Amino acid sequence: MFVRIPYRLHIYDLLKTIGIVTLIVYLALPFRFASHYDYIDGAHIEGALLPQVTLNVSLQQTFECSYTDIIANNRFVYSSAYYHETVHHAEEIWPGGEFRPEQCQARYSTAIIVPYRQREEQLRAFLTYMHNYLRQQLIHYRIFLVEQYDQKPFNRAMLLNIGAKVAAEYGFPCLILHDVDLMPLNSGQMYACVETPRHMCPALDHWRFHLPYQGLFGGVVAITTLQFKQINGMSNVYHGWGGEDDDLYVRIMDEGIGICRFAPEYSEYTMLKHKPENPNEHRRALLQAAKLRRFMDGLSSLVYKEVERRMHSLFTHILVET
Ligand code: BGC
Ligand code: MN
């Protein structure tokens, strides 16, 4: 009797401890909510990229740049020291934040569209890092910053529509819709379009480098200008945080286009820290009617006022009232 009771207690405590430890390990496991996704591996990236450039680049008449080594030598290039860095060879960047290699003819022309309001510190870090990062890819690119001037809740998707419209006017065949707080970590994450719209940041540090759900299509997305027009752009009715990227995903799938991603080792991003934005309470209801709305809500219904367009040394600034 005396021997059995403490023995039982011992087993019970042990089981309890195992239970608690298992629970903690499970909760802390980074891939607890990971969604596995199909991707284009490193060997197939170059073949997947669409060679397409603006007219001025196509007239350059030098031999074409080579991208094979850039993709094959994919490596981790990020360092938080970028905060103290400056843009290397800033004189090679044209006013408006445009760059193209001179020694060879770029195969890809990309407009990087950044919706923006009141994130000055992040913007400075983004511009410095991105110009240094993008130049080593030997692509032709230009950064368009679309800033919401009014005090209404932030309308990310509408700003992206505006940026896409302007970039199309400048002749860009490929658009990259890019949050200002996200930065690529791998040198081979090519800033160019492929056959289907591409989610570029499935391995985000904020999500412990795992994709939370298959349909996540926000942050950084590459889409051709033609496809963006084909799906009528993004919805203009999402005010505040959330849902507009899910709506974009619905449009692309409903149109039967499909999406893709590159392998995780090409798709790592870091997110700069910031306070969470105010969520849009109506986002779920809006999303439910996304398919019904998509033909009448988008580029076809885009109304805004351009307050100013200015060529800064590192970006084209488009200031708008939504
Ligand atoms: C929101 C998206 C957001 C995602 C990840 C979803 O619930 O609707 O807009 O990108 O969460 O944060
Ligand atoms: Mn963010």
Automatic annotation (TrEMBL):
Start and end residues of each Galactosyltransferase N-terminal domain: 83-193
InterPro entries: Galactosyl_T, Galactosyl_T_C, Galactosyl_T_N, Nucleotide-diphossugar_trans
GO molecular function: galactosyltransferase activity; N-acetyl-beta-glucosaminyl-derivative 4-beta-N-acetylgalactosaminyltransferase activity
Keywords: Glycoprotein, Glycosyltransferase, Membrane, Signal-anchor, Transferase, Transmembrane, Transmembrane helix
Cellular compartments annotated: Membrane
Homology family: Belongs to the glycosyltransferase 7 family.
Protein name: Beta-1,4-N-acetylgalactosaminyltransferase bre-4
Species assigned in the record: Drosophila pseudoobscura pseudoobscura
Classification of source organism: Eukaryota, Metazoa, Ecdysozoa, Arthropoda, Hexapoda
